[in-house]
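Researcher: We are triaging several targets before committing to wet-lab work. For this one, the compound of interest is fe (ii) ion. I'm pasting the protein sequence and the ligand SMILES. What I need is the predicted three-dimensional arrangement of the protein with the ligand bound, expressed as structure tokens, so it can go straight into our comparison scripts without reformatting.
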Amino acid sequence: MTTFHPIASAGPANAALRGTLGSPGAVARRARRARRGLARRGLAWRGLARLLPAAVLAATALAPLLAPAPARAAEEVNLYSYRQPFLIQPLLDAFTAETGIKVNIVYAQKGMLEKLKAEGMNSPADAVLTVDIGRLTDLVDADLVQPVQSKVLEANIPAHYRHPDGKWFGLSARARIFWASRDRVKPGEVASYDDLAKPAMKGRLCLRSGKHAYNVSLIAARIAHNGIDATRDWLVKVRDNLARKPQGNDRAQAKAIYEGVCDLGVANTYYTGKMATNEKKTEQQDWAKAVRVVFPDQDGVGTHVNVSGAAVTRAAKHRDNAVRLLEFLSGDAAQKLYAERNFEYPVKSGVALHPLVASWGAFKADTISLAEVAKHRAAASRLVDEVKFNDGPGS
Ligand SMILES: [Fe+2]
């Protein structure tokens, strides 16, 4: 079953919704109707309906998505999001304040592709927010999204950060950088992704799984630039330089460097900021202090960059509002907030960075089209299997 978790939408919309709900009895009746609506749509939400008290289910702004076709508000848009509420909610509130368009949102951690496939043209989702060109491309490949032409989006978002036919648009950017031990890696000792393969790095690397989307995209970019054979040779050497089998998430590589397990890791830039400012898990601040950010390939094609992004679904019932939301998210104010709250880079040029992000320095990003990189993802994934990358050194 899916693991979608409905969470209340923009404050004003939710307040308005509560205002229309009326008595507790009316709330319960509405919840029952919503659950029947779900069953009719064949969704795997029964577990969710059991988990949540009826009033909670009805009181979330998801209810209008799920109820059996009530008369809809004049202007609204329905959104599925892999991006988290702390990041998205302020932007949606600002969008509603500016446009009067209510946003109904379902936050998810996984299962979005399967859910959209199951729903088909009956999906209530008008647009999706997600991360990584892998997931964006999966939506295109499954024919779940539609082309959008927008002068605003085309002006705000560089061509290499959007699908050539407008089937997805990058909204924030993250560089896949090195974390180098401040104590054990000399400045300048590593400067290129090629250096991950050099003999001097034997036993000094830590990486997460080669099959993780972030690494698959990096390897796909290498294939796009260097071809499959050169990338295979590189990947075998990288594998044999590992200090341990690939494991953990990006942050786990900084932890390993902090603990002296290895000297060099590969990670997305924003994790540096999230660790350095983590007030709940303060040990992560120590991990961040142990590493220096190095932007690879500054003398070559530039550092590999991936995006979070959005797409308008093929099933969209509120297409114009969905496009308007994407345009809003690509504008100056949203770009600043969107990028800085998660220590990412705006895709729109001229937008200020978070001071911590700015402190890592300016860098040259690889400007190869991410849609082109995405074409090599399947080959990259196969290569990881072929060289048994995840079995570690000497496999
Ligand atoms: Fe991430």
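Researcher: Any quick observations?
Model: DSSP finds 19 helices and ten strands in the chain.
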